[in-house]
Specification:
Shape: elongated
Radius of gyration: 17 Å
Distance between the termini: 44 Å
Helix content: 10-25%
Number of strands: 5
Number of helices: 3
């Protein structure tokens, strides 16, 4: 038998397992360009249909991504997401990852839909 341990949550954090999956994030290259090319494989692989992507053509004078296309609109509905990791496995560009941040609370349903600016993370 082990005595229960109380953790003072906001100040202290319980160590998470290495393979813990929580909030998604979109990665960038070291030069700041986005990795996502809006191929749509992550949205097709999602069993909960929680990912919505709109692609657009990349402007060569001011590129957003390193390829010909980029995600003009990328949204994930966190209320629908089941954190299975299929989107992470399906991505050929290694653009989407499931991180360890699990603070996904909101008082409204609109606040649980994460858009591209909220998901982008620097390299």
């Amino acid at each position: 038998f082990v005595k229960p341990i109380t953790v003072q949550y906001p100040e202290e954090r319980v160590p998470l397992p290495k393979k813990f999956r929580a909030l998604h994030y979109l990665a960038r290259y070291e030069n700041g360009l986005e990795r996502c090319v809006a191929c749509g494989l992550c949205s097709r692989a999602c069993p909960a249909d929680a990912i919505y992507i709109e692609g657009a053509e990349n402007n060569p004078s001011s590129p957003v991504s390193a390829k010909e296309r980029f995600a003009a609109r990328y949204e994930i509905d966190m209320l629908r997401c089941i954190f299975c990791g299929y989107c992470e496995e399906a991505c050929p560009e290694d653009a989407i990852f499931l991180g360890h941040d699990f603070n996904i609370s909101s008082s409204t349903r609109v606040g649980t839909v994460y858009n591209k600016t909220m998901l982008l993370k620097d390299a």
